[in-house]
């Protein structure tokens, strides 16, 4: 797969696409016609620490994602979750009529909202769906109306109501996308990547079934055994598909669970650490801060500042 370029912030995404700085650090709407494609854009694969939802036409290349290649000469929608790897493969010529939009959403924009958990249940963000969403002109117009509402809200009305209004618009967009996918798959089979799907289920069960309280922190060995793979092979596969080693994948999933519990429960920091499988609270706090730049307590307090 070659070099994988990781973008941690929406600001970095804007910089690599020669766009002005985003007006909000955690959410942005980009007009695809404004994106300036440089050769470096095609020379590596990309992975993001945020969600990317896009509708593009005439991209001037093909997108390689989840071992599948998409042709963007027609209007199609594309959904990328944090940590997934994609690549743009250039085609001959440079189209002058590139159009469409990209919605960038950092997961931290969603914390302490119902969408923080719900967004993970939309299957089209998963590698288990490796088919682009083809939309009709009417469906495209519906999506554009929602995107215009989001853009208008964060451009003109940043106040205590803004996040809730924008979240509701994102939820509406995702529900329409789900409807359109269901329509598209009436006559098509969904293709899946079995290993990643099973790994996600195993990870969820590790905490839902309280396995962590007896076995401690989840390990590469634990998941590899249940997938009937060697730890090295599992890590190699994850690296190719997500840009992460198995250990990095596990750590990021731990932080996701921790953020959820810090934002929606009253459990103490030590109780959360124990639930995750940490033997010492200090170890949990150290990993959390290394991943988020905040201590668990600072992260929790950030929701009580209004």
From TrEMBL:
Keywords: DNA-binding, Transcription, Transcription regulation. Residues 201-302 form the HTH araC/xylS-type domain. This is AraC family transcriptional regulator. One of its GO terms (molecular function) is DNA-binding transcription factor activity. SUPFAM superfamilies: Homeodomain-like. PANTHER family: ARAC-FAMILY TRANSCRIPTIONAL REGULATOR, TRANSCRIPTIONAL REGULATORY PROTEIN. It holds the Pfam family HTH_18. The keyword Transcription regulation applies. The keyword Transcription applies. InterPro entries: Homeodomain-like_sf, HTH_AraC, Tscrpt_reg_AraC-type_HTH. Gene3D superfamilies: Homeodomain-like (1.10.10.60).
């Amino acid at each position: 797969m070659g070099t994988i370029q990781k973008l941690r912030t929406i600001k970095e995404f804007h910089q690599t696409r020669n766009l002005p700085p985003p007006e909000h650090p955690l959410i942005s709407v980009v007009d695809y016609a404004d994106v300036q494609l440089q050769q470096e854009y095609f020379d590596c694969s990309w992975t993001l620490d945020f969600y990317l939802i896009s509708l593009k036409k005439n991209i001037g290349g093909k997108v390689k994602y989840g071992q599948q290649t998409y042709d963007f000469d027609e209007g199609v929608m594309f959904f990328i979750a944090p940590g997934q790897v994609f690549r743009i493969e250039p085609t001959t010529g440079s189209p002058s009529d590139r159009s469409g939009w990209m919605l960038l959403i950092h997961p931290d924009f969603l914390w302490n909202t119902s969408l923080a958990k719900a967004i993970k249940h939309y299957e089209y963000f998963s590698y288990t769906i490796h088919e682009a969403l083809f939309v009709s002109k009417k469906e495209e117009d519906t999506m554009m109306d929602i995107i215009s509402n989001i853009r208008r809200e964060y451009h003109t009305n940043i106040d205590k109501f803004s996040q809730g209004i924008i979240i509701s618009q994102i939820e509406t967009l995702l529900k329409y996308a789900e409807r359109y996918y269901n329509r598209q798959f009436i006559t098509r089979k969904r293709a899946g990547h079995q290993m990643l799907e099973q790994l996600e289920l195993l990870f969820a069960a590790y905490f839902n079934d309280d396995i962590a309280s007896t076995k401690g922190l989840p390990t590469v060995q634990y998941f590899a055994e249940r997938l009937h793979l060697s730890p090295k092979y599992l890590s190699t596969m994850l690296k190719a598909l997500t840009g992460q080693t198995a250990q990095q994948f596990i750590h990021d999933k731990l932080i996701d669970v921790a953020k959820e519990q810090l934002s929606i429960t009253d459990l103490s920091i030590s109780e959360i650490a124990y639930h995750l499988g940490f033997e010492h609270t200090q170890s949990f706090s150290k990993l959390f801060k290394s991943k988020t730049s905040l201590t668990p307590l600072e992260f929790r307090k950030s929701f009580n500042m209004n």
